[in-house]
Amino acid sequence: MKRSGKIFTTAMLAVTLILPSMGVSADEGNAAANGNEKFRVLVDSANQNSLQNAKQQYGVHWDFAAEGFTTDMNEKQFNALEKNKNLTVEKVPELEIATATDKPEALYEAMAASQSTPWGIKAIYNNSSITQTSGGSGINIAVLDTGVNTNHPDLKNSVEQCKDFTVGTSFTDNSCTDRQGHGTHVAGSALADGGTGSGVYGVAPDADLWAYKVLGDDGSGYADDIAVAIRHAGDQATALNTKVVINMSLGSSGESSLITNAVDYAYNKGVLIIAAAGNSGPKPGSIGYPGALVNAVAVAALEDTIQNGTYRVADFSSRGHKRTAGDYVIQKGDVEISAPGAAVYSTWYDGGYATISGTSMASPHAAGLAAKIWAQYPTASNVDIRGDLQSRAYENDILSGNSAGSGDDIASGFGFAKAQ
Fold first, then answer.
1. CB 282 within 8 A of CB 409
2. DSSP states of 113-155 as a string?
3. Mind telling me the catalytic residues?
4. Which of 128, 288, 292, 116 has its CA nearest to residue 205?
5. pLDDT by residue (tens digit) across 51-90?
6. Do the Cβ atoms of 190 and 367 come closer than 8 Å?
7. Do the Cβ atoms of 392 and 317 come closer than 8 Å?
8. Beta bridge partners of residue 159, listed in sequence order
9. 62, 81, 296, 388: least CB-packed within 10 angstroms?
10. Could you tell me the pTM of the whole model?
């Protein structure tokens, strides 16, 4: 190494015409009113007989062995289970997309025009005239999101895995359809390859795409589906003896034990986990989960605005804790690095392109950079690559004169990590 070193997707969407209706049908409304609307729960017990009986009675969505199992039930069933002294039961956090109505309208185009090289790519490559990117060969980027349009001209050559984890019991192979757009956009920033020559480029176009659908078509989903996908990526890294970078452009104000344990599991298997910091800024101490976890790299969002010699952190981008700022150590709830996240132009689910803002957009820039670096140093560990990201960010901030040069700050972490 040359250097030392209710959950929701965090995009701020302004493409309102493409979002599915969030209304409920009369039947759904009646189910909720009668207490029959189903939701996901985690059931566990030290008594294996009680646990097996519960599995037989309610069915299993995912079996987490030592952590119990998840299943769907209504409020009446949940209340009844809570009275069972042999069982512990808790609701699984639900994921939902966050939208921003106070942001400028997003640019939406059916075909790429003059923006074949988005500003974020130029910024992360530190080259305003760059028209094509490279790197990431042999590294896999697992995009855990709403799915990916694997037939998009700018992505289809990179697809290695396509799996749906929202169905439960087992994933569905060769199925990761994105009907929302978020996941396709995220994948493009990480590794789009320009398609036929008129498309967009991501940070690491030579990397392989693992498209893991963990959120539904409306952008919502459950923590257990995400946890299973994280563990699966870790197992695949071991089974295939390959390097994996997980990107999670999603977050929650509350911690899920299922996701926390899954992140630790994958990290210990050598996977590098990159996650969005969240869109609850500029309030200090507002980093969302899983980005807030110690074994995940939380990425803040930068605007295309130069301030004090470096790119400005967006106001919406979540901030870390003041008490841990400047200590050169990334602790729980800290921003680690920052990347382009405002007005980001990338691939879209219908084969076109769209511009979106959010830390969701910053995270894949960092994931692509991690893949690019890892391909250059294939014997490095996930810890090494994480340290290299921090080092690049820190050195860049020193050169730009940003205050983060004295350590990590609450807004940008160590700063903006660049490819060169």
1. no
2. -S-SS-HHHHHHTT-TT-------TTEEEEEEES---TT-TTT
3. 145, 182, 360
4. 116
5. 999 999 999 999 999 999 999 999 999 999 999 999 999 9
6. yes
7. no
8. 209
9. 81
10. 0.90
